Structures are given as C-alpha cells and as structure tokens.
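Researcher: Quick test of sequence recovery. Tokens follow.
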C-alpha cells in the first residue's frame, strides 16, 4: 500500500493538523515508511504466542477486595454547601 500526497493531506485534515502543501511529500514518505514497518511486523509468525503487557513477566500485586466506606464521611461532607443526615443535599429539580 502506498500513500500519496492527496491521502496524506486527508489524514492531516482528519487529525486536524495543519500541514503546508510543500511538506506533503515528506509526510507521505513518512507514512509509507511507517506502513513498511507494519508490513514487516505482519510477516512475523505469532501463532501460539500469548499477549504480553510488559517485556518482563510480572505478577500484579493483589489485595483482598473489601467494600468499605473509607471512614471519611465527615471529611467528604465538610466541603458540601448543604449536607443533611450524612448525605449531600441538592435542590429539587423535578416538580
């Protein structure tokens, strides 16, 4: 696949990037270089290779999933303009 100047201009417009007309040939060449790298990656056989999130195998630290209120109700409500009975109070908007 090859990117010409018209396609490069359209991509720049879609990305909302201002590109001067004299810079379009260089941009098209850069796009073609990137597509060449992608084609090289497509040639690699990845059958049986599991996806990775990092180049080194790592286990995430896990903790017990417990639901708590955080014991910070007073601090949370201290900045509220109006709080009643431990909740935020808001004006009625539906009649």
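Model:
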């Amino acid at each position: 696949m090859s990117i010409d100047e018209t396609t490069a201009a359209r991509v720049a417009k879609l990305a909302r990037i201002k590109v001067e007309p004299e810079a379009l040939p260089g941009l098209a060449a850069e796009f073609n270089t990137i597509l060449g790298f992608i084609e090289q990656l497509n040639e690699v056989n990845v059958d049986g290779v599991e996806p990775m999130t990092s180049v080194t195998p790592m286990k995430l630290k896990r903790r017990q999933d417990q639901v708590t209120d955080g014991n910070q109700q007073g601090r949370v409500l201290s900045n509220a303009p109006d709080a009643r009975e431990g909740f935020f109070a808001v004006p009625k908007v539906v009649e």
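The first strand starts at residue 83 and ends at 84.
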